[in-house]
Design goal:
Radius of gyration: 26 Å
Helix content: 25-40%
Largest sheet: 7 strands, mixed
CATH class of the largest domain: Alpha Beta
Number of helices: 24
Number of domains: 3
CATH superfamily of the largest domain: Thiamin diphosphate (ThDP)-binding fold, Pyr/PP domains
Number of strands: 21
Distance between the termini: 86 Å
């Protein structure tokens, strides 16, 4: 008797998803396992979003099995869970370049594929986009289903809630919302929505029974059982929020059981009313380190040893800037009565240890940046010290609230801007290039960026001890040497001259000053280096001293630099009739894509050669 031939797939030869239609469920399950192995292998070398992609493999396979992309539109909220979609749409052979310069993006990308119908790097946009596509199909008389894949943490974002409200009762088009519920965002999901979804998931016993029935019930009995369940639920259980808003709610479904997900999607496809499919998945499934990670450490990872996981991945001599800022706040949390507000970024923001030591002093509001700003304002009104922590690009979402509720009213809220400047591999949606211009457009706003942790501590000490009003401290996505500072003095509005040369000045701020000093020394450029740690207000005394020499100035800013330090210096020069030569190196009006930070600088024309060129041209 001959042995059955073992089924396997050449992942890198996949060109498009049409081949899935010919596969049986067992073959799809084997493909899911092989995709997981492929993802762990590739991400361990390039870094990227690991746990979220491992949990969404079956969902993605089922979507492409049931629907016909790109005729049907599949939209991924945030799109950090899109790797399986990229594999199925012909990009597996490029995974060695994932997040590398000019390589495969870690998010959806219009430039990469017609199957990437919505480009996003931030939570909360998918349902609004889905409604837009539904309306466009109606206007253009186009066929095609529209599906939004949204996580349990992303769905609470204000934009998604606005779209849910509109689609549920105000719009006659039919959309399918696939709610990927893994009880995690980057870290543990929080809030009333999380509690509601937990109630819908049921007890451990009921979840266990669902898994058993998933395996043993034939399809027709499964469908009958689902109808009976809905009938009983209508009698004994309160309706859930989605049903109250006008949706057909289906779930919970085991989102890692591809057979059941396919059946559910087929049912939803036949309905003539908008549907919410509640799929429960396991984030990190198939890779033990990620699967049992309850902190969120395996959400987004650098390159790692796949056998050892992330153990000692960064060594012991350095910490991230995020962790460094959190360690400073740790020292002062009790003494200065500080409360940290953070929108779903405890792990990424470096506050894990802080949260363990001061659980009552950190408030995770979920993916709700606008709410975090308004809540911080109310705390400040009540004379409570606040540290409002944002990634640079996430702070942009709260512009109106920061402007009207914090800046306009001159409230004492210290705002930490993480991932400021170039961010490297995360690419164009995450480049922290716009916050300086944003904050400098607001009244009463003090904006700073320290060159090292000692300076950061001095700035924070000033912010809490001596300053009234909103205070921004920016810091990059980078590692930094650990420092123990015992004698810290507050650093008020001031700049400092770091080197003393004779022919001109380079003015900048933040850790990039180290890079600039290296370039100046290596190339023997006779320009002094100025640390403009206060981007606003200017150190007018030192600036006047510099300008009175008549020497040229080069202002180097890893920002968009429209309305940033360069313009502030120009304004000061115009008002005081100084006529020094001055030029700017910045990312002005450029979209900077993924790659290493050195690649980002080159793409922005801010690399070593560009600095040398600018200095030589201005002499």
């Amino acid at each position: 008797m001959s042995k059955k031939k073992k089924i396997s797939f050449d992942i890198e030869s996949i060109k498009d998803p049409t081949f899935l239609k010919d596969l049986k469920v067992k073959e799809l399950e084997i493909l899911a396992q092989e995709i997981r192995s492929f993802l762990v292998e590739k991400i361990s070398k390039t870094g990227g979003h690991l746990a979220s992609n491992l949990g969404a493999v079956e969902l993605t396979l089922a979507l492409h099995y049931v629907f016909d992309s790109p005729v049907d539109t599949i939209i991924y909220d945030v799109s950090h869970q899109i790797y399986t979609h990229k594999i199925l749409t012909g990009r597996a052979s490029e995974f060695d370049t994932l997040r590398q310069h000019k390589g495969l993006s870690g998010y959806a990308s219009y430039n990469e594929s017609v199957h990437d119908k919505w480009e996003s790097g931030h939570a909360g946009t998918s349902i609004s986009a889905m409604v837009g596509f539904l309306q466009a199909n109606k206007v253009l008389n186009k066929e095609g289903n529209v599906v939004s894949v949204v996580g349990d943490a992303s769905i609470i974002n204000g934009t998604n809630m606005e779209a849910l409200n509109y689609l549920g009762n105000m719009y006659d088009g039919k959309g399918i919302i696939l709610l990927n519920d893994n009880n995690m965002s980057i870290s543990k999901t929080r809030g009333a929505m999380s509690v509601m979804l937990a109630r819908l998931r049921g007890s451990k016993f009921s979840k266990g029974m669902r898994k058993v029935f998933d395996k043993i019930l034939p399809n027709f009995l499964f469908r009958i059982g689902r109808r009976i369940k809905r009938a009983l639920k209508g009698i004994f259980q309160r309706r859930n929020m989605f049903e109250d808003m006008g949706y057909v709610y289906i779930g919970p479904v085991n989102g890692n059981n591809i057979k059941r997900v396919i059946q559910t999607l087929k049912s939803a496809k036949k309905m003539n009313k908008s549907v919410v499919i509640h799929a429960v998945t396991k984030k990190g499934l198939g890779y033990a380190f990620a699967e049992y990670d309850e902190e969120g450490s395996y959400h987004g990872v650098p390159a790692f040893d796949k056998k050892a996981g992330l153990l000692n991945n960064n060594g012991n001599s350095k910490i991230t800037w995020s962790e460094g800022i959190a360690s400073i706040l740790d020292k002062y949390a009790e003494e200065k009565d500080i409360y940290v507000l953070i929108p779903a970024m405890i792990v990424g923001g470096g506050f894990l240890e802080f949260a363990e030591k001061h659980p009552n002093r950190i408030i995770d509001v979920g993916i709700a940046e606008e709410h975090a700003a308004v809540m911080s304002a109310a705390l400040a009104l009540n004379k409570i010290n606040v540290f409002l922590s944002y990634y640079s690009t996430f702070s942009q979402r709260a512009y109106d609230q920061i402007l009207n509720d914090i800046a306009r009213t001159n409230l004492k809220v210290v705002i930490g801007i993480d991932r400021a400047g170039f961010v490297g591999e995360d690419g164009s949606t995450h480049q922290g290039l716009y916050d300086v211009s944003m904050f400098l457009s607001m009244p009463n706003m003090t904006v700073t960026m320290p060159k090292d942790l000692k300076e950061a501590e001095g700035l924070l000490k000033y912010a809490y001890d001596l300053h009234d009003g909103p205070f921004v401290i920016r810091y990059p996505r980078a590692n930094i040497k650990k420092e123990i500072n015992n004698d810290v003095k507050p650093i008020g509005p001031s700049w400092e001259q770091l080197t003393n040369k004779t022919r001109g000045y380079v003015i900048s701020y933040g850790p990039v000053l180290n890079f600039l000093e290296e370039v100046i020394e290596e190339e023997k450029l006779d320009f002094s280096l100025i640390n403009a740690r206060y981007i606003h207000p200017l150190d007018e005394k030192l600036l006047r001293t510099i300008l009175e020499t008549g020497k040229p100035l080069v202002v180097y800013e890893e920002t968009h630099a429209s309305g940033a330090l360069y313009q502030k210096i120009l304004e000061f020069m115009a008002n005081n009739e100084y006529h020094n030569k001055i030029t700017s190196l910045s990312a002005y009006n450029k979209v900077i894509r993924h790659g290493f930070v050195s690649d980002n600088r080159s793409d922005a024309e801010m690399g070593k050669a560009d600095i040398v060129k600018a200095i030589k041209e201005i002499l």
